[in-house]
Amino acid sequence: MNIPKFEYAQPRSSAEACQLLAARGTEAHVIAGGTDLVMALKNRQKIAKLLVDLGSIGGLNEISYSEPEGLKIGALVTLRHLASSGVVQQNYPMLVEAALAVGTMQLQAMGTVGGNLCQDTCCMYFNRSDAVRQSLEPCHKLGGDVCHVVNCSEDCWATYAGDLAPAFLVLGAKIRIADVGGEQTVPLTELFSGDGKQPYTLRPGQFITELSVPSPAPLSGGAYLKLRPRETLDYALLGVAVNLTMEADNEICKNAALALTAVDKAPLLLEEAKQLNGKKLTEELVGEVGRAAREKSQPIKSLYGFTVDYRREMIPVYVEMAIEQARQRATA
Amino acid sequence: MQKTIRLNVNHESQGLLVSPHQMLLDVLRDQLGLTGTKKGCDIGACGACTVIIDGEPALSCLTLAIRCEQKVITTIEGLAENGQLHPLQQLAIEHGAVQCGYCTPGWLLSAKVLLDRGSVPTREEVRAAIAGNLCRCTGYQKIEECILAAAETIREVKQQENHNECGVILESCDNLAVQTI
Description:
CATH topology of the largest domain in chain B: DNA polymerase, domain 1
Low-confidence stretches of chain A: none
Mean pLDDT of chain A: 96
Shape of chain A: globular
Number of helices of chain A: 11
Shape of chain B: globular
Mean pLDDT of chain B: 92
Oligomer: heterodimer
Strand order of the largest sheet of chain B: 2-1-5-3-4
Strand order of the largest sheet of chain A: 4-5-8-6-7
Structural class of chain A: alpha+beta
Number of strands of chain A: 13
CATH superfamily of the domain at 220-331 in chain A: CO dehydrogenase flavoprotein, C-terminal domain
């Protein structure tokens, strides 16, 4: 499958990359691991006139950890590198689970942390081959004005299905964004626009250089669970990340965070999890949070695998399982 | 805009003129004639095009050739050394782990990455390692058996080498660290 020709640049610094990107606007794309982008270029979901290779910028593929600053992950760290890092395995087992839940071993070795966060949204029309898509008129995401998944919708309903985002969200991660005017650090929550068509708030000329995650609190633990038809390769049809901090008595929850992926246009960090704070994790209370998560989610039909109803019903089940796993890790 | 890149493929240094939009898979097959690397889905979903780049498994159908400057690449043609089949290849034959053969180069290289880490993998680890290599004949069972047997063979060979090195023959010794002492 050929890709239309494009120019290719290897900047030596983030500042140079930003200038190249800003000068070419939407016709320029950054390439990190390339797994999401190259597939999109082959499928004609994206057109690039210029690819700016972030691999030529030094220092973006390192992991460091210190107390009390926490974890710093270069945007170009591969998922396989993340999952095999000793400090990550020891302090953030949830991140290992999330990284190993992505695609396959090959995609984990190629794909990067920054690239996974910026994975494009998908739907059963947009992610078909170019030939199949041409049988219908272009959708919102391809520059048209229809949605083939939610009839008569004036918005694009493409779903965000990245695996790392919910895990990083419940860990309170921040991202460092390079811009022509310098770098700035913002909470990860600000990365997602909630628009299926343009899922990120990054402007032309901006890209992520680093993620930072606070040190884990004492008596805290997390878990990430993913629902998909096959135990490999497939995008999430539901992903649940939970991070819990327990009180010293191991009974009362001090702080809870819950995030879902693959059920809306952006990953959902649910405020409802705060209902658990200061309370004992009873079946009834956990069930209530699970049902609240189900109400907040808006899954759309997927191309393969499970029905929307099944996925919705699985939300409370997965929330409960993830909370239980996180609790066990927090109190271990 | 074309660019000359230098890369090492199967222990041979190669200079190639490539365009930015060319995929490593096409360059390997069409420019270097290394047609053992297969083109399956061509969008990173089947693993038939798996090669090893700098010790890591990679899908050559999603890898831009121009990004491979100075990389060390192993394709299926480089798995056998000095005319001697790799244990994975030999055991694939013995276990009948090859049916139509289209996925074979890909999973052999995925398995090589797994075995190169040095320890004998569990069956679950083998499954995870080859989960990105779809076999359209669904012959996974024999592939798993082959990889587990190859891991055992490599361990035995290493153990033997280690014995020879230190000149001590131990009747039963599973701990390599102890042997080298």
